Structures are given as C-alpha cells and as structure tokens.
TrEMBL record:
Keywords: ANK repeat, Repeat. Residues 1-40, 53-82, 89-108 are annotated as: Disordered. Residues 14-39, 71-81, 90-102 have a biased composition (Basic and acidic residues). This is Uncharacterized protein. It comes from Pelagomonas calceolata. InterPro entries: Ankyrin_rpt, Ankyrin_rpt-contain_sf. The keyword Transcription regulation does not apply. It holds the Pfam family Ank_2. ANK repeats lie at residues 152-184, 253-285, 286-318, 319-344.
Length: 384
C-alpha cells in the first residue's frame, strides 16, 4: 500500500514540474524574465523549411486571372515594340538579305566573265559560237562589260569582226561597244574586218566612226588599204564616202591605195578611187606608178581606166623601168597594145641600143636566146 501511494505522489510531482516548465516557456517576454534560447538544430531546421517554402512559391504556377491582374498593377508592365519599330527592323532584315543575294549574284557573274583556260570570256564564246541569243542575255547582265578583253587583248567585237558575224557585230555596236578599240597588236575591228574581206562588217563597224578613226593605221595600213588589197569594192566606196583619205601611203613601202588596187588587179576599187579624186600618177617609195603595177600584173582593164584618167605612160620608176618595158618583159600583149595606142612607143631606145619594139619581138620569138657578144637584156633595160 505504501509503495503504490509513493508512486502516485511521484507522478503528481512529475506532472506539476512539466506544467510549470511549459508555463515558463509560453510566458510573455515582457514579464521580466529572460526567454530560453532554442537549440541550434531547431533554428537550422526552421531556416531550411523557410527556404524550401520560398523555392516552392517561386516555381509554383502563376495565379489566376484576378490575382495576376492585381500583381500586374503592382509590378511595372513590359512595353511592347511599336509597329514603326517592327517595320524598321523588318526593312533592315530585308535590306541585308538583298545585299547578300546581290553579292552572290555578282560573284557568279564575275566567275562567268573571267577568262577560261583558252583566255576567252563568256562573250567571246558566244560570238565564236554565233549564238546571238546567248550574246543578248550576257549583255543584259548588270555586271557585263561589253569591252572586256580576253587573254590576247581582243574584245568580243574584235572576234566578231574577224569572223564576219553580222548579227553579233550589230548587237555589240548597239550595246555601245568601242569600235575603235585596239588589241595588243594595234589592230582595230575595222582593219580586222577589212583584212579578212568582210565587206558588210566593214560597213557596220565604220557606220559611227570618225574620220580620224577610219584613217588610223593598223600594221602600217589603213582600212582603205586593206579594202584595196582584199578587193571589197563596196566597203571601199563606203569608206571613201565616209572621208577615208586615199592619198595616205602604206608603211614602209609608201604605196597608195590606188597602187594596192592595181597591184592586186581589183578594177572596181581602181574605178572607185579614181572617182574619189586619187592621183593616177602617184608613186610609191621606188617611184613606180599604178600604171606600172597594172603593166606588171597584166590588168588591162585597170590600165584603161588609168590612161583615161590622165595616167602618164612614159613615167619611169627610180630604176628606169617604164610601163611599156615592164609589160613587154612580162609578155602582157593586151597591156602592150594599149600602151602603144596611148603613145608609149614614141619613147627612146633601151640601154642596149634597140627600140622597145625590137626587144619585145625578140623576146616573143626567142625567149631563151642571147645576142652575140652581149648579155641577155630584158625589155625596159633590165638585165636577166
């Protein structure tokens, strides 16, 4: 009985002590008694719980529309870009894209007009192939240079003139190609076309040229010299009407255009040049006239024209050769008869002492014989 009563008393004391301790801890701070500090592990646990709550709230989804509206009122709203700024930005982007596209196009065209392994550009290849459609397409490109030279200094118009491609020449001329441009050899498209005998090409090229460009020397010859050499009388007449100077002499032989036409037996060119006012008795550097050239080549038609225009049948060159003597030496009977009819037989005797008639008849009868005691003297005083 005593043991059970003692146990009940101890339990009552223990419960009273716990009650007093709880009342001490929950008592207000202003009662004058100092509160007891919390353990360190409790403070740490409380701080960790607060940090976890803060992170949870930061990662939580946004509130409802009503609460969001309240929050937006409290916080400064982000301004949306205006339509003007958006338009300016889009315009700048479009400009940059256009610049990149233009740069790619220019690079492609530079590669297109660069000389290939043979030194030819795209324009030269189109002209050489005679492809007028491709030539027009290339000339329509913004970066195309119509006078772009190849490896040898020839522009596309040089190639067209040399080949005589009329359509290509017309296209290039209308595209403002430089028709008086010289290549590395100093040749212009006009002289190239004339030297190759392309009459219509000469007319197309010389259509817009000045007198100075028409009378320019190329390789010692003017374009009119080349026309007389190749015998393109239509181009010869066109150049004469455009102001080509027929009195100019070729270099270095000093031959006139009339002498060239007579040498190569181009009678229509001789007639055109005489109508243009050429001197029928003009001489070259050796003193020979166009009559002597006709007598040497046997061109009796040109000989008749020269005699009718005042050609001197007695005029000899620096070596003493006369037209009749040269005609007799060459055996050109037609020229001899025409010169004789013009009074050429009234000239003096040859250096051998006999007349030209004797020498001519001797040459016809015994072409390989020699006179006794003298060397074979050709008609006109030339020793053979």
């Amino acid at each position: 009985m005593k043991k059970k009563a003692s146990q009940r008393g101890s339990l009552r004391l223990t419960s009273d002590k716990a009650e007093r301790l709880r009342a001490f801890r929950e008592a207000p701070a202003d009662d004058g008694r100092r509160p007891r500090p919390e353990p360190a592990h409790v403070v740490l646990a409380r701080a960790q719980a607060a940090e976890a709550e803060r992170l949870r709230r930061a990662r939580a989804p946004k509130a409802e529309a009503s609460s969001r509206a309240l929050t937006v009122k409290d916080e400064p709203a982000k301004e949306e870009p205006s339509q003007a700024l958006v338009a300016i930005d889009n315009e700048a982007k479009a400009r940059r894209e256009a610049e990149r596209k233009e740069e790619r196009r220019k690079k492609k065209e530079r590669e297109l007009f660069a000389p290939d392994a043979k030194g030819e550009t795209a324009l030269h290849r189109a002209v050489l192939a005679g492809d007028s459609t491709e030539l027009r397409r290339l000339l329509g490109l913004p970066s195309c240079r119509v006078d772009c030279p190849n490896f040898y200094g020839d522009a596309a118009i040089h190639a067209a003139a040399q080949l005589g491609h009329i359509e290509s020449l017309t296209i290039l001329r209308d595209a403002n190609a430089q028709t008086d441009r010289r290549n590395r050899h100093g040749l212009t498209p006009l002289c190239l076309a004339a030297s190759k005998g392309h009459s219509q090409a000469v007319v197309i090229i010389a259509h817009n040229l000045t007198k100075r460009a028409i009378n320019a020397y190329c390789g010692g010859y003017t374009a009119l010299h080349w026309c007389c050499v190749t015998g393109i009388d239509a181009a010869c007449g066109f150049l004469a009407k455009k102001g080509a100077d027929a009195s100019l002499r070729a270099e270095p032989d000093g031959e006139t255009c009339l002498y060239k036409a007579a040498t190569y037996s181009h009678t229509p060119c001789v007639d055109i040049l005489l109508d243009a006012g050429c001197d029928a008795n003009a001489t070259n550097s050796d003193g020979a006239t166009a009559l002597l050239a006709c007598a040497a080549s046997g061109d009796y038609a040109s000989l008749d024209l020269l005699i009718a225009r005042g050609g001197d049948v007695h005029k000899a060159d620096l070596s003493g050769r006369t037209p009749l003597g040269v005609a007799a030496q060459k055996g050109n009977l037609s020229c001899v008869s025409r010169l004789a009819a013009a009074g050429a037989f009234s000239s003096s005797t040859t250096p051998a002492g006999d007349t030209l008639v004797d020498r001519f008849l001797y040459k016809l009868s015994f072409p390989f014989a020699k006179k006794e005691g003298s060397e074979d003297v050709a008609p006109g005083g030339c020793t053979g």
